[in-house]
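Comment thread on ticket #2218

A.B. wrote:
> Attaching the input chain for the structure job we discussed in standup.
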Amino acid sequence: MDIRNVQKTGNMHYVYLPTIWCRKYNIKSGSKVTVINNNDGSIRLSPHLTEKKLNHLNIDLAEDDQSIINKMMVAAYINPTSSFKINLTKHVDIQKLLDQKKLISLEMVEFDGKHISCESTIAVENPISLLKTMVRKAKNMVSVMKKTDDIQLLEIYEDEIDRSKFLIEKSVISRLTFNETTNIKTVYLHYTALISKDLEKAVDQIPNVGKNDKVFLQSFEDSLSVLLQILEKILSGNTAELKHTDAITFAKKVDTMKSGATSNIQSYAKLQAKQLLTNISEILFDWSVSYMAEEKQENFDAAKTAEATEKK
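C.D. wrote:
> Ran it. Output below, let me know if you need it in another format.
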């Protein structure tokens, strides 16, 4: 066993590769190697580039319940596959299945008789960036709703927001499945996925609020503006950085939303929308504390390294 010291330059940590190993596999300056993160925390280094290959899924489904079919199709879509095909062994009204919300948000999904298939899906490199786009679309949707009764336009916004949420889920599951190397830590991907789910649910409540309640819609839009600023701040620097003061600012903005007592569909929708934004504020607090804990650990490790160096 060969023990080597980890060294650091700026934000980059590195370990020198064994000279004998480099000579054996003709590793030189500029050579590319494959780095795989294993589930046990170890790293496997390969002198040959390994191409990740996604598999095709073939699923036989003996169900005519549209809700069950919907769930199976979404699960197949968000998981990392090159393609999938669901074979329905029972008769299903495809038109009614298509009419279900969310299904039209899945790009490249085809319905052919008793078969549902998808040949390719879009990969997302940075889910946090897509979450920012999702928030912007939600903000624009509310802005449009205050000015027009164009249901078709609002549905387009809803579909785009749903699709963004699906792609975020797909990206996060792919990272977890294949342990891909990324500058975004797993826990932050987790927070991103949680926020996208609650945001999509909150947006679903807005049409029930109605365009006439401009005060609530404005407060909802203002809260999204604060969330958008937080995400822009995260993406402008360290992709993990989030301060607890940011979470406090968002939580206070959400608290100013007046939902009132629940007496009808409109008031219930406002209550639900506010609660979902409150859930997002709690996730932001979790995210900020995770970052603080990581930052403190890094400072501690740096101090211990400096102390060990001085002793030498």
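A.B. wrote:
> Thanks. Noting for the ticket: The chain is about 55% helix and 10% strand.
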